[in-house]
Amino acid sequence: MAKEKIALITGSAGLIGAEAVRFFVKKEFKVIGIDNDMRAYFFGAEASTVKNRKQLKKSLKDKYIHLDIDIRNRKKIESVFKKYQFDLIIHTAAQPSHDWAAREPYTDFDINAVGTLNLLENFRKYASEAVFIFTSTNKVYGDTPNSLPLIEEESRWELPQEHKFYQGIDETMSIDSSLHSIFGASKAAADILVQEYGRYFGLKTVSFRGGCLTGPLHKGAELHGFLVYLAKCIAIGRPYTIYGYKAKQVRDNIHSFDLVNAFWHFYQNPRSSEVYNIGGSRHSNISIKEAIEYFEKRLKKKANLVYSEHNRKGDHIWYISNVNKFKLHYPEWDYTYDIYRIMDEICSHQKIQFT
What is the model's pLDDT at position 241? Predict the structure, then answer.
């Protein structure tokens, strides 16, 4: 009889973590989830992931074991690795906002960088044959994308079609000599640690540098979760603040399922110390202005907009991911959601919640 596969998923009640739990249980993994609802601490009770946690436990029963553990706690993390023999570690737990990080730099760095180190070291000691997948961020590139020769169009900022990054920013962009934000710096530290544990110790590791990660179960807040928070504000008439750039800043968005499916493809044929930019690419991207107009039509409500001339420090004006490297390595992976299917799903969820 084949040995039962076991996955450790941190941030297991969050958007990507919960998606990964459901996905890998369907792939016949037993999942050990770690999540202590720090999102409520970061963004308030409205952003709490407790509901997701309860739904996972109710629907998956003994296939999912939830542990209310802080990834900063070395002894408890080590005890988990001693108890279970993991085949896969998916690390999604994080402090995810560059605005919030400036409030508590120690908390941000301890969670994003030191917490990642805790997991990596126990992975090396107790589960060295496993695969380690890390959800990094495009913020490791800092504000370098803002130096691109952007052109102002009617509804968005855009690159000239002949520019080498027109199809999206690839992994050749430098992470040096830029303003990262405290959050970007802590995630860059974690990203490099993940690479180094792969390269130095010969382990199977990957950093997925995500654009905007989204889906209807995202607990959107003003400081994190652009599309879901915008839809929520329009649905309930809450003021939505636009920070600079004439609302024409562009984001690519990848659905949580498509991202976790990329994890699955990597797990089946893992590499060492790999890095991939991952996001919606040219397949799924939108500006804030375009998103407002679409949500207003779909929800049949006008947005209550507040405009601030001051952009968020280090905020990207335009960011689209080039996913060609990942597609080259894993040609069977592809998107199942484009930007409009994502937004339609979010709208349907908002109607269920607020009408």
Answer: 94
